[in-house]
Amino acid sequence: MDEEYDVVVLGTGLTECILSGLLSVEGKKVLHMDRNDYYGGDSASLNLTQLYRKFRPDQAPPAELGRDRDYAVDLVPKFIIASGELTKILVHTDVTRYLEFKQIAGSFVYREGKISKVPSTEMEAVRSPLMGLFEKRRAKKFFEFLQGWKDEDPATHQGVDLDKDSMKSVYEKFGLEPGTQDFIGHAMALYLDDDYITKPARPAYDRIVLYTSSMARYGKSPYIYPLYGLGELPQSFARLSAIYGGTYMLDKSIDEIVTDADGKVVGVRSGTETVKAKQVIGDPSYFGAGNSGGGKVHVVEEGKVIRAICILKHPIPGTEDSDSVQIIIPQNQVGRKNDIYIAMVSSTHNVCAKDVHVAIVSTIVETDKPEQEIAPGLQLLGPIYDKFVDVTPLYTPTSDGKADNIYITRSYDATSHFETVVEDVQDVWKRVVGKDLVLKKREVEVEQ
User: Fold this and answer.
1) Which residues contact 235 (CB under 8 A, 6 or more apart)?
2) Residues 196, 135: one domain?
3) Residue pair 268/254 in contact by the 8 Å Cβ criterion
């Protein structure tokens, strides 16, 4: 193992796998290692045995749940937004060849004690119980304004400056009720809390346009999801890396990050073997996350995310028997600072046995009783067959990595989609390579 690599990547989470794939395409010599014997790190999809082993080591999975290999249960629930940045990377790198996607059937929002569908067509909007008649007219004007906006044409601005005016003032200009603001900000712009409302409106405008253009792409909902679970995503980027000469080693202990007298990284040790490396990229768990070691990562302000993986024997009540849904519970509806998310998939996505549904309820922890915080979400699910609860701290690196050539990625946050993951990829790429990530169309012939 005395070989020298341009980059050694630790952990096979999605962020790390995208980076190793793109760096290999760029011509870098990449070695990718993981202490687990499966791909995906924190963003893996586990079969039944792995799931029970992770959460209840002393219990075997119940036989009535069916075959082990029918399951691919995500540890981190996220959907792919159809017109989002991850989709662009998937299409651009041609990684889509290794994946098959299915649409998520519906997007719902919780309001005044019940679930309502986020309208995906004009007809649904007209019939939607989310707004009264006059409010619908005001909302229609608001959306027409957003869709008609052209930066270069002041006539479309109606006196609004997206870079100066707050989102609150834009809502008020159109006379939108608090309930509608809540619905637009959380179920469409997908903000986790209300901090955005006092800031300039541009980011919120971008997010709403992304949502509506993703919705327009396939109808029904703005989300797509890979068959066989999210764990397929890191594996597909790992394949991309391998085609361009990347080397993979799973089930490999990482015992030491070796540095020279100046503290710069020179290699990685596993047992008695050491590989030389000019740069190291890794997820926070390899750098003292979870203890005081290293001082290279710290817990972010929001602190922790709670996720409850629930196995159900039925679709979620009130969702029109959909085989897959996202439900957003805006924080105002349940007296919280952060939204609660429910993501549900089923056997149509090849992630569980027939007649089984897997729903994951998650939110940012605000108290010392995290499980009580997700109760409003759990109550919507109906009877729960089994439940696995995980509270994970969110880590972020303490430095940009330039001093020691060690570049650490961020933990997967509470958002329901992958846009922040791509932001992290772009941020780490810029620090490692020294320039912005520009996607180049790859030559497909290489593989042949």
Assistant:
1) 17, 39, 40, 98
2) yes
3) yes
DSSP 90-105: HHHTTGGGG--EEE--
- The reply to whether 53 falls in a domain is no
Burial category of 34 from C-beta neighbours within 10 Å (exposed 0-12, middle 13-18, buried 19 and up): buried
Is residue 383 a part of any domain in this protein?
Answer: no
Residue 157, helix vs strand vs coil: coil
Sequence-ordered alpha helix ranges (H) in 278-395: 370-373, 375-379
* Predicted TM-score of the model (pTM): 0.91
Q: How far from 280 is each of 19, 162, 183, 257, 258, CA to CA, in Å?
A: 12, 40, 42, 9, 10
* Domain match, 279 and 416 both: yes
Residue 302: the pLDDT is: 74
If the chain, 448 residues long, is cut into consecutive pieces of 10 residues, what is the mean pLDDT of each piece?
88 96 95 93 94 95 95 96 94 93 94 89 81 91 93 96 97 94 92 94 95 88 95 96 95 93 93 94 84 71 92 96 96 94 97 97 96 97 97 92 94 91 96 91 52
pLDDT at 105: 94
**How far is Cα 133 from Cα 115, in angstroms, rounded to an integer?**
19
Count how many domains the chain has.
Answer: 2
The pLDDT score that the predictor gives to residue 294 is: 61
The residues near 4 (Cβ < 8 Å, ≥ 6 apart) are 29, 275, 276, 277, 278
Q: What is the pLDDT of residue 441?
A: 65
The position carrying tokens 């029970």 is: 52
Q: Treating both helix axes as pointing N-terminal to C-terminal, what angle do 202-218 and 133-148 enclose, rounded to 10 degrees? A: 100
236: Cβ contacts below 8 Å, ≥ 6 apart? 90, 95, 98, 99
* Strands 273-282 and 406-408, bridge-based pairing: parallel
Most distant CA pair in the chain, distance: 72
Tokens (6 digits) for 271: 């047992």
Q: Decide: 418 and 86 in contact? Cβ < 8 Å.
A: yes
First to last CA, the chain: 29
**Shared-domain flag, residues 245 and 164:** no
Instruction: Tell me the two tokens of residue 401.
Output: 């990595």
* The two structure tokens encoding residue 246: 């990347």
